[in-house]
Amino acid sequence: FCDSLSQMSKLARVNNTGYRMAKSVTPGPYTFILEATKEVPRRLSHPSKKTIGLRVPSNKALHALLEKIGEPLVGTTIIMPGEEAPLSSAWEIQDRIGDQLAFILDDGTSVIGDTTVVDLSGDEPEVIREGLGSVSALGL
């Protein structure tokens, strides 16, 4: 998670068209796949494509945390082995795996649903997954 597009541009390369597209819909429910810069630890980027998925979410509590730490934050969706649905509430995460985590941020406003994933690492933008973010807002 990034708190701004300027933070995003330090971690990934994006052309002008992709930057304008991301700027028009962020913060919001979009994940952008971009070519990772050397600032990104190897273990966080795709092993063969050297890409990374970045988000600028609209959650105010998460933005406050990102501003406070001044660095991007790694996040993931937790789907337990043998299950199809992700863990979606703080109490459920605490109950199931809380002892394995440094902290859980719960501001009570979580929206459940997939982000729209757009690959901007190639010559043309490509929608990989349609989710909560409007594809038409991207101009595609």
Task: Explain how this protein is built.
It is built from 4 helices and 5 strands; from the N terminus they run αβαββααββ. The chain has 140 residues and is of the alpha+beta class. It has one domain (5-135): DHBP synthase, CATH 3.90.870.10. A hairpin with a 6-residue loop joins strand 4 (116-119) and strand 5 (126-129). The two termini are 24 Å apart.
CATH hierarchy: architecture? Alpha-Beta Complex
How far apart the termini lie comes to 24 Å
Q: Uncertain spans, ≥5 residues at pLDDT below 50?
A: none
Measured by DSSP, the beta-strand proportion falls in 15-25%
For the record, what is the CATH homologous superfamily label?
DHBP synthase
CATH class: Alpha Beta
The SS-based structural class is alpha+beta
